[in-house]
Amino acid sequence: MAMSYSHKLRDLYFIRFAFAIVWVGVMFVIAAKAAEPTALLTVLLVIYPAFDAGAVLWQLRADPEAGRSKTSEWISVAVSVLVAIALGISSSIALPAALAVWGIWAIVAGIPQLITAIRNRKAGGQIAQMLSGGISVFAGSGFLLQGIQGKAMMTGPAGYALLGAIFFLISAIRLGIKLRKANA
């Protein structure tokens, strides 16, 4: 895998970390006060998967291995776009429905993330992404069950995104270390 792709992945992971940290901060403030659906909460819930889809599209364009199957990444993009739409609808109806949709997304997005991280392991810094994908499946199951039970604790997705941000930061740092060693 080309070193320039590793540079691009590192930069993307730093950008994803920064975005998530800002999103988490705003989401914690808004979600802690929201007992009912609000327009701002809906916007926040839609922005996160939309940004995720854009980041994966960017990663697809940056990948130099044209012959490699990128099915898991395309699935991730499609799922994130569909979830953004579903969150826009569900979060304007009932918060437990939005939490259940978030849970489904975490499950369905976690699997391709795990597969992609395994495939990108040669680029370095992917162990955190593998863990993130696996944890997404478990966390998503919890969100789905809470939503089905009628619970609407919308700070949960913010905590989940915070953990994801930490994993992106770890991956970016590990890639940076690998790149420095390769250039030494």
How would you describe this protein?
α2 packs antiparallel against α3 and α5 runs antiparallel to α6. Helix content is 82%, strand content 0%. The protein contains 6 helices and no strands. It has 184 residues and is mostly helical. The protein is elongated and about 55 Å long. It comes from Glutamicibacter mishrai. This is DUF308 domain-containing protein. Keywords: Membrane, Transmembrane, Transmembrane helix.
Brief digest:
The protein has 184 residues and is mainly α. The chain contains 6 helices and no strands.
SSE layout:
Layout: H1 3-33, H2 39-62, H3 71-90, H4 95-119, H5 127-148, H6 155-183
Helix pairs in contact: 1-2, 1-6, 2-3, 3-4, 4-5, 5-6
| DSSP E strands, number | 0
Largest sheet: none
Mean pLDDT: 89
Beta-strand proportion: under 5%
Q: N- to C-terminal separation?
A: 18 Å
**Low-pLDDT residue intervals, each spanning 5 or more residues:** none
Order of helices and strands: HHHHHH
Envelope shape: elongated
* Number of helical elements: 6
The assigned structural class equals mainly alpha
Radius of gyration: 16 Å
State the domain count: 1
The percent range for helix content is over 70%
